[in-house]
Each structure stands twice: as structure tokens, then as C-alpha cells.
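Below is our example:

___
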Amino acid sequence: MFSMTMKLSMKNPILTRLAVLLLALLPVLSACKKETDLQKGFREQEEKYKAIDDQLIQDYFSRHKITSKDYTRLESGIYLVNIAAGTGENLKAGQTVQVKYTGRFITPSREDVIFDQSFGNRSLCECFEVVIDQSAVIKGWHEALKNMKLGGRQDVFIPSYMAYGAGGSAATIPPNEPLKFYMEIAKVR
């Protein structure tokens, strides 16, 4: 190794320095791939709630007589209940969309509680504008929007790990709470 370094340094000192730097950084770079205890805890919590949330959503479906022919389950765990298909192609990352929505809880004791909505928000369209995969909304919204079309209307059931997770959202959304959103695509730009 030493003789190789000597040959490199005589031909190209910049390459030698780069090689030495990479060798010195190798332990640091390999450590980046290891999962920290905190990351492991979050991952384990998410795995636990995948099953819990799925059962809560299925229980909601049972109470409301929503059968498997009525919904589509995405790989992420989000359920889409189609009300109106809409027209054109599915929405894509980077598109700006105006969404009319109502957010509700799905647990039996609070399923009629609306925690947020665009209706009556004093905008002309009574909607909320989102840039898909860029706006600061929950992950579940971005995923659901990419499975909708202009004019489409769906009830979207979002598991907690795709919503506000273990932290919840201030005093409004409790930790680990799956949510239901009525979503309607009013405009696409």
C-alpha cells in the first residue's frame, strides 16, 4: 500500500490526497448506514401501528358496511374509497392542486368529529392548495393525491404512520391516530 501511495503521489498528488481522505472517511461513512437506537425505536413503533391502524380501519369499514369491493388498499396502507373517479390522468408530483376536504376521526367514540376542513375557510373555492410531494402536508395526502384525478372524490383512510404518527398534532390530533379525509380535486395547475 505504501509503495502504491508513493507512486500515486509522484504522478498526481491530488489523487493521493483524495485516496487518503476517502480511507480516513470510510469508518464514518459506513457508520451512517447503521440504524441508531432512536431510529430503531421509531421503526418498531411504526411496524406495531401498521397492524393496529389497519384493524381500526377495517373495524370502521365493518361498522359502515364498506366491503372490499368498495375500496382500494395501497401498498403504503392507505385505503381509497372511490366516490367519483374524475377525468384525465392521475395527478403527479410537482402539480399544484386545489383540494376540498373534510378530516374526521375513525374511532367509534369520535368518528363524527370533524377536526379540520376547507369548507368555509373563506377562500373563493373553499379549498386548500397543495403542491404534490412538496407542500408541508402529511405523507398520506401526497400518496392519496397521486391516486386521484381532476374532479375525483374519495374518502381516504390514512394510517397514523402516514399522518401525524406518534407525536400527534398539538391538541387536535392524538398520537397514533388513523384519519379519514373526504377529498375532492377542484383544480389542477
Residues 37-188 form a domain with the Chitinase A; domain 3 fold (CATH 3.10.50.40). The chain is about 35% helix and 25% strand. The chain has one domain: 37-188.
